[in-house]
Write a structure and sequence with these properties.
The protein has one domain: 3-Layer(aba) Sandwich (Rossmann fold). Helices cover about 40% and strands about 20% of the residues. The protein has 10 helices and 9 strands. Helix 6 links the parallel strand 4 and strand 5. The radius of gyration is 18 Å and the shape is globular. About 40% of the residues are buried. The model has no long low-confidence stretch (mean pLDDT about 90).
């Protein structure tokens, strides 16, 4: 099942419940990576969560998103930002000019792309010294909540696809993607506290989660509630997210 199908009906959940990136991460991108004052093509921008964070310091952000529903919400929520431009295209064929942007970014989206085509497109639109920034918010492999989520999906027959830089397949793809397999890696604490509603909403927004009309939806929601009950403290559950950033040339 492709990305467009797996994200059907999840746009509002995605926009409302997906975690942002911490200030430490964004400061690193602006100053250490050098994205301040630059033109950035944010590929697979979804509802624009990361694109709008970039607007605080980038000269211009091109939010590239093929999913109609997500792109429309991105347009609405990004209206107050004068330096963001929404592109109804895909990461492999952005239609941006050659040698045009300083950076290409992909937040929570690299795993959806045709990697060879995406690499060619990055090379086409990047300036000679430009770089590619890949980002993920993810739970560590041994996190007790993640293990419970994986067990729930296995019980219900869903294919759990929690993605992050610790995912072996993604790591292999990253090494092939960056020039010479070389990239800079940084990781930032992004621990968040969620209410029951927020926790359920967060994991209903996942690509592997069933849609409301799918078999197993009610059992999945009840399973999420049970996980919350098991691990919550004082009305909240703590999710020990890490924001991982990779930077390199292609």
């Amino acid at each position: 099942m492709n990305m467009l199908k797996r994200l059907r009906g999840k746009t509002a959940l995605y926009a409302k419940y997906r975690p942002c990136y911490p200030k430490t991460c964004m400061d690193f991108l602006a100053d250490s990576v050098g994205m301040r004052g630059c033109k950035v093509a944010d590929m697979g921008s979804g509802t624009g969560i990361f694109s709008r964070l970039l607007c605080a310091f980038a000269e211009r952000v091109y939010a590239v998103e093929p999913h109609d529903e997500m792109r429309r919400l991105c347009e609405i929520q990004s209206a107050p930002f004068e330096n963001v431009h929404i592109c109804a295209t895909c990461a492999e064929a952005s239609r941006l000019p050659e040698n045009y942007v300083d950076f290409v970014s992909a937040s929570q989206s690299f795993h959806w792309f045709d990697r060879p085509k995406f690499k060619r497109e990055c090379r086409r639109i990047l300036k000679p010294q430009g770089g590619v920034v890949l980002l993920w918010n993810h739970l560590e492999r041994d996190d007790e909540v993640l293990l419970a989520l994986r067990a729930l999906c296995e019980k219900l027959g869903f294919s759990y696809t929690g993605i992050g830089t610790r995912d072996d397949r993604t790591l292999r793809s990253i090494k092939r993607f960056y020039d010479g397999g070389k990239y800079r890696y940084e990781s930032f604490d992004n621990t968040i506290l969620l209410t029951r509603e927020q926790f359920v909403g967060r994991y209903l927004s996942s690509s592997f989660a069933p849609a409301q009309e799918d078999p197993g939806y009610d059992d999945y929601v009840q399973g999420l509630i049970d996980i919350f009950k098991k691990f919550h403290q004082e009305e909240n559950i703590k999710l020990r997210y890490r924001s991982s950033v990779l930077v390199g040339k292609v």
